[in-house]
Specification:
Elements lengths: L2 H16 L4 E9 L6 H11 L9 E7 L1 E5 L5 E4 L14 E5 L3 E8 L8
Parallel strand pairs: 1-2
Antiparallel strand pairs: 1-6, 3-4, 3-5
The chain binds zinc ion.
């Protein structure tokens, strides 16, 4: 379940940016091609964040659609599942424009809260 390694990376990033403050919410963006299962990620986040400043934080997310561009005819399209052939000309030389993102977009912290841990 690769959600655990993603959750670890998310928690590490949030902890670094929180600088000792208690985190109340972490907002992440991930591309559809990452094939992240949001429920699994939320579950993993809940476990990985224990005993960190992210403990109890809400995880929210945004899924970035996967967009491809055909190298041959410059056709651009969105895909639901990995299928990398251009529907315009049938070409297989394509560029992934989006869909591989995986980033912590923002975190919210309790202002003025002391680090008690
Ligand atoms: Zn094409």
């Amino acid at each position: 379940m690769h959600e655990f390694s993603i959750a670890s990376a998310v928690v590490d990033t949030a902890v670094r940016h929180a600088a000792g403050r208690h985190v109340t919410e972490v907002h992440v963006r991930f591309g559809r091609l990452r094939q992240v299962v949001p429920d699994s990620l939320e579950f993993a986040f809940g476990i990985v964040s224990r005993e960190t400043v992210c403990d109890g934080a809400k995880l929210s997310w945004e899924v970035v659609p996967a967009r491809l561009r055909c190298t041959g005819c410059a056709h651009e399209w969105e895909i639901e599942l990995p299928a990398f052939r251009c529907p315009g000309c049938g070409g297989a030389a394509v560029t992934v424009l989006s869909g591989e993102e995986l980033e912590v977009e923002s975190i919210e912290v309790e202002e003025g809260a002391a680090c008690i841990a």
